[in-house]
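Readers of this paper often ask what the protein records in our data store actually look like. Nothing more is needed to write down the fold, since each code stands for a local backbone conformation. Below, we set out a record of this kind in full and without editing:
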Amino acid sequence: MVKNITKQFAKSLIGKYAKRWKPFSRLFLSSDTPLWSIAQDMKELKSICQSLSILTEKAALFPYCNNQCVFFGSHFDLLLKEEWFQRDCRFATAYFHGRPGTHPFHDDRKYKLNLE
């Protein structure tokens, strides 16, 4: 119960803070896990963003924000969560390997709806 109250409070606080941002002025860089090479790619991409004066935020804040931009280092993290597409955000992803219909995690319908 305490954990839920804390989470709700954090969500409310972050949401109020993020509403001050201009629409689509922040980029969230989402990595799958620190153990994969994609995490290192996201660190490098953050460095590039900083050199270009692109404002980045911690990926953990993204679920509490709207009207911002998110880059998913793994297309699985984006395509396998339909709730992302209910958000008023701009999404991008890296698509390193695979084609729709060639892997059990791919869903051709999601691919067609979201990436065409």
The mean pLDDT is 80. The radius of gyration is 15 Å. The longest strand covers residues 27-30. The CA atoms of residues 17 and 65 lie 9 Å apart.
